[in-house]
Design brief:
By secondary structure, chain A is of the alpha/beta class. Chain A is built from eleven helices and twelve strands. Classes of the chains: A alpha/beta, B mainly alpha, C alpha/beta. Strand 11 of chain A pairs parallel with strand 3 of chain B.
Chain lengths: 341, 335, 444
């Protein structure tokens, strides 16, 4: 296997608040290879957006990051701001959720491109910049005749395409797409996903696709990482994870998803925990239907299974770390509506 | 969903409605840090001094404000600060210190009246105008903008002039003159808040359950719209004092026999200054400056504390405790 | 685990007394405020026809889904049914009364029966009212609660019904203390406390997490059983609509394009738009076949509707009579130019003058040539393109390409707007299913 484009090892991002540190990302490890799309899926409050921003160094003041995050061999944790800013754009790209608000309404599209290209590729003249820009726009299906228009003259889906083009014009090796289609209609969403897939093939960009929609993950991702309360509870090949989810949370999440084939409703009782004060042991144990005694006492250890998935759950052992009686079902109070999300 | 969603802590015994309202007010104040906190607290302390001086004037001031004699002998004319008159006396043989203290009382009375009058007229008009829109809104906005366009002191003078013909020149007249100037302020702020709050889903929900406009305005809009009013009110109060002083300085304020007034004293002190008599002007002047500054500090301090965009919560530096890295353990099959 | 409820068989043989609401040709048009000139002259500058002629009947006890993307008018339609947005045309009959044109004052007493649950749980509750006051407020407004004790009893009942138990914990809470799911439950408590007949639910679950969505749908089902409610369920999410609704109306740009029982719509979608929607729903199953048939383009601006059938610019099956116009030719050329190489694009586009001239032209469309080129070149180019693009629906609507001097002329077939007509168990608004035009339709 070739060197991964991005590799995180025990990455932690904590915010300071009045109530104490909020452990938004609390020890996360994953790899993304060239041309691969890793889906990062979880519900609101699990820390996935924070992780996306941490990779690009877009964390607010007061956030502390530690662990290891290697991008093509360079360690990003602790990198001076200036250097990281230099990488943002030509090496690391980001597509945001709401394209309506991310483009400057007072600048033409041409000016957006020029701004980016001027900083990162100063050698290009105006003509060269226009060529690069229209080429990028062509890849996303925006006619070159509209190069000089303002953002408000485009619809939502087209603006998202422009954002993707702005990201791709610098040919970054890695891209983070943070809920790129959440604000879009389902048909436009399908268009954008197809576009991202085509671009992935053409440009071999590695991508981290952050979303809460499991359908998108199934359609657009090669591998998937399921995140809960700041930790990745399961990561593996998308087909494997969906067909045979190994972590109870993944299983419950899949069961709760209402799709065209749903015949019965299913939900997970309770709410995601407060990241400033997560439960002891396994963070999912208060809501897990298969919780055992050990789940409350000890944090589970990541285990690599035969299928290639890595998951952290005491159901998969390792057995030698579970104390006596640890495998007995956990007794706890029923969760009432008062505690639900 | 760029923000981190922190689930609310469930449980906790039911909070009393009133206690919660107060907690919402006190909370940000207690959390304030740095400059806003110092601004606020210094303003509050100064204002408190001012209010105490005003309320307890008879106890603090040795003499009455129009008193020119005591214990048989009259006060010296333009006497320098010394025994008996710590801040000296004026050309009319009044005690400067007493006049300053009673002046605080006048200022406080006028200020309170002016703010109350302005609030009572400006806020409801703003609510109605913002909620109903249409021709009512356009007419009111026109009137208010016209009032706004006038230089405020001129407007106050005109109002004082007209009102003194009807009501005589007293505290109430001065207060009303100042009121006219500040109604547009409240109107504008409340109208703007109402215009945006009107589009909120919960207001539409109120319509959906069948609430009449009056109910919507009082129960759904009012408490969500008046958050900026306290700040305006304090700044309004500060301005009221300086306007009052201005009116008094120009002779349109309160008659000297009715009450002591700082502005009037200043005007009287102009002639003295040429003769090297400094005590009749300095002390009233300082009093005006301090009172206005005190209230402005409170106003700006409150604004910084309550305004969520200006508020900077204290974010402490986070120290991450060290952790032993767990490599994934190879396992054959699952447990 | 709660399962899908048995669908209500809509009023067979029960006649009109089964109908709760009868909507005919409903229109909601918003006048646009135009530019400076029209402000002076006082004329309106066009209108956004958010709802443009909608007809259906709502039966008692059913769940009717209004499904569409943004701009489809579904939200406006929901609000118009309740009088929250004034309808500008058509009729809504409820309980023997005409609701369109009814003033706000006379609408208010009817609000007891016609309620709404909103989309954003974080914004639907008054932040300064605690739950007890907020949920009891409808009763107070309509004078339906006698004493304080009675009010409290009813509020407690409503809270229990929506599952916010133990009730004492919730009575004094403010919205900021509640989670999203709890807030939405409170919204339903408020909407149902007066025992309404109809609840319009505007995407009640779309802003909630997956694991909570099911709970709210479950709640809605429970309330329907307990109170005998009728729902109009507005959503863009076909999956929840399929699960929850008895009948579904697919909306596009202010019109209903397909209406029928849920099972039929999903098993056998007739309108091309319905087909694309179904194909585009992301399935959480990586092994599922992903259809590559995504209609091009996006929902057009409602202020400038496409001619003929509103969906024709995006429809893969459009044909001659669907309403082709100059705008579509422009879109076609621009799309084509993104697919050509740089040189080919420059060579071709140089022949055409600014394509903006094509907008707004219908019938016989003039395509001006750029200076230095003549109409014959442009016409020849267009014919070449037509011959290349064998699958492109637009060319089916072109009857002639001619040239004269400085411009080419493209003659389009006259287009008509399809109306919603019965086709078997469903109603569809599509020329493909119109017996009058079916002969002209391309083989499917």
């Amino acid at each position: 296997m070739t060197e991964p484009v991005l590799a995180a090892e025990d990455l932690r991002v904590w915010y300071g608040t009045e109530r104490g540190p909020v452990r938004a990302v609390d020890g996360v490890s994953f790899e993304v290879h060239e041309g691969e799309t890793l889906g990062l899926v979880g519900e609101s409050g699990c820390g996935k957006s924070t992780l996306g921003r941490a990779i690009l160094g877009l964390l607010p003041r007061g956030a502390a990051m530690d662990g290891s995050l290697r991008f093509k061999g360079t360690e990003l944790v602790g990198l001076p701001r200036k250097e990281l800013e230099g990488m943002r754009g030509p090496e690391l790209g980001l597509v945001f959720q709401e394209p309506m608000t991310r483009l400057n309404p007072l600048m033409r599209i041409s000016e957006h491109f020029e701004e980016t290209l001027k900083i990162h590729e100063p050698g290009l003249g105006k003509k060269g910049m226009k060529e690069r820009a229209t080429e990028a726009l062509r890849h996303v299906g925006i006619p070159p005749s509209r190069y000089d228009h303002y953002p408000h003259e485009f619809s939502g889906g087209m603006r998202q395409r422009i954002m993707i083009a702005l990201t791709l014009v610098l040919r970054p090796a890695f891209m983070v797409a943070d809920e790129p289609t959440t604000a879009l209609d389902v048909l436009v969403e399908a268009q954008i996903l197809r576009l991202l897939g085509d671009l992935r093939q053409n440009f071999r960009t590695a991508m981290l696709l952050i979303t809460h929609n499991l359908g998108i993950v199934a359609e657009a991702c090669d591998r998937v990482a399921v995140m809960y309360a700041g930790r990745i509870v399961e990561i593996g090949d998308a087909r494997e994870v969906f067909a045979e989810p190994q972590h109870p949370y993944t299983r419950e999440l899949l069961a709760s998803t209402i799709s065209l084939h749903t015949t019965g409703l299913h939900s997970i009782p309770g709410a995601p925990p407060d990241l400033a004060d997560p439960p002891a042991g396994c963070r999912f144990h208060p809501r897990c239907p298969d919780a055992m005694r050990v789940c409350e006492q000890r944090e589970p250890v990541p285990v690599r299974l035969e299928t290639g998935q890595v998951t952290e759950c005491w159901l998969h052992g390792p057995a030698d770390r579970i104390p006596e009686n640890g495998t007995e079902p956990l007794e706890r109070e029923a969760i009432s509506v008062a505690d639900e999300a | 969903m760029a923000q981190l969603t922190i689930s609310p802590t469930p449980g906790g015994a039911g909070d009393g409605g009133g206690r919660r309202g107060i907690r919402r007010l006190i909370g940000p104040i207690a959390q304030a840090q740095g400059l806003p906190k110092w601004l606020l607290w210094s303003g509050v302390i100064l204002t408190a001094l001012f209010v105490i001086m005003a309320v307890f004037a008879p106890l603090i001031a040795p003499y009455d404000f129009a008193q020119y004699q005591a214990h048989g002998h009259t006060f010296p004319k333009q006497g320098a600060p010394g025994a008996g008159h710590i801040w000296g006396t004026t050309v009319m043989q009044f005690d400067v210190f007493s006049r300053v203290v009673y002046g605080a009382r006048t200022a406080l009375e006028v200020m309170i009246l002016a703010v109350i009058f302005s609030l009572v007229i400006g806020v409801p008009l703003g609510l109605l105008s913002g909620y109903f829109g249409g021709w009512l809104d356009r007419v009111l906005v026109l009137i208010m903008d016209a009032l706004f366009a006038f230089p405020y002191l001129l407007l106050a003078i005109v109002a004082a002039f007209l009102l003194s013909g009807i009501l005589g020149g007293g505290v109430v007249t001065a207060a009303l003159a100042i009121t006219v100037v500040y109604i547009p302020q409240y109107f504008r702020v409340v109208r703007n808040s109402t215009l945006s709050a009107r589009e909120a889903t919960y207001v539409e929900a109120a319509r959906a359950i069948g609430a009449k406009p009056g109910t919507i305005i009082t129960k759904y809009l009012f408490s969500n719209v008046v958050q900026s009013v306290p700040v305006i009110a304090t700044l309004n109060a500060a301005d009221a004092i300086s306007t009052l002083a201005g009116l008094g300085f120009l002779g349109y304020g309160i008659q000297p026999t009715d009450a002591a007034e700082w502005g009037y004293d200043l005007q009287r002190a102009i002639d003295d200054a040429g003769a090297g008599i400094w005590w009749t002007g300095i002390y009233p002047g300082i009093a005006i400056v301090l009172a206005v500054t005190a209230l402005t500090l409170v106003g700006e301090g409150l604004n910084d504390v309550y305004n969520p965009t200006l508020r900077r919560r204290r974010i402490g530096k986070v120290i991450l405790p060290p952790r032993a890295l767990e490599q994934p353990i190879e396992t054959k099959g699952d447990a | 685990m709660p399962t899908k409820l048995e669908p209500q068989t809509a009023g067979e043989g029960a006649g009109s007394d089964d109908v709760l609401m009868d909507v005919r040709d409903l229109e909601v048009h918003f006048a646009l405020r135009g530019g400076i000139v029209s402000r002076f002259t006082g004329g309106p500058a066009g209108a956004v026809r958010a709802v443009d002629g909608v007809t259906f009947q709502l039966h008692k006890g059913e769940v009717l889904g209004l499904v569409g993307e943004s701009g489809s008018g579904k939200t406006t339609l929901g609000r118009a049914l309740l009088g929250l947005v004034p309808a500008t045309g058509g009729s809504i009959r409820y309980a023997g009364r005409e609701l369109v044109g009814l003033g706000e004052r006379r609408m208010r007493p009817l609000r007891r029966d016609l309620q709404m649950a909103f989309q954003d749980p974080h914004a639907s509750l008054n932040p300064s009212m605690d739950l007890q006051t907020a949920i009891g407020h409808p009763l107070r407004i309509h004078g339906m609660a006698g004493s304080d004790a009675e009010l409290r009893e009813k509020v407690t009942g409503a809270l229990e019904r929506v599952g916010l138990a133990p009730v004492e914990r919730f009575l004094t809470k403010f919205p900021a203390d509640l989670s999203g799911g709890q807030k939405q439950r409170a919204v339903f408590a408020r909407a149902t406390i007066m025992d309404p007949k109809l609840v319009v639910a505007d995407e009640p679950a779309s802003m909630l997490d997956m694991s909570v969505r099911a709970k709210i749908i479950e709640l809605m089902q429970g309330l329907k059983r307990e109170l005998g409610l009728t729902y109009v369920y507005i959503t863009h999410d076909l999956a929840t609509a399929k699960f929850f609704c008895d009948r579904i109306a697919i909306m596009y740009l202010g019109r209903i394009v397909e209406l029928g029982p849920t099972a039929e719509i999903f098993a056998n979608p007739r309108h091309p738009y319905t087909r694309s929607l179904l194909a585009a729903v992301p399935e959480p199953d990586p092994r599922a076949e992903v259809s590559r048939e995504v209609p091009r383009g996006e929902v057009p601006d409602a202020a400038v509707r496409p001619a003929g059938c509103s969906f024709h610019p995006r429809c893969p099956k459009a044909f001659a009579v669907c309403g082709w116009e100059g705008r579509d030719l422009r879109a076609l050329l621009e799309q084509r130019w993104t697919e050509l190489t740089e040189e080919a694009y420059l060579a071709e586009s140089a022949q055409f003058a600014d394509l903006a001239a094509l907008d707004g032209q219908v019938g016989t469309v003039t395509v001006p040539a750029a200076s230095g080129h003549d109409g014959e070149e442009v016409a020849a180019r267009l014919r070449r393109i037509r011959d290349e693009q064998t699958d492109e629906p637009l060319w089916r609507g072109v009857t002639d390409i001619a040239a004269s001097g400085t411009h080419a002329t493209v003659v389009f077939h006259a287009g008509t707007d399809p109306t919603l007509t019965e086709t078997g168990p469903v109603e569809v608004a599509c020329h493909l299913h119109d017996p009058q035009y079916q002969s002209q339709a391309p083989g499917t």
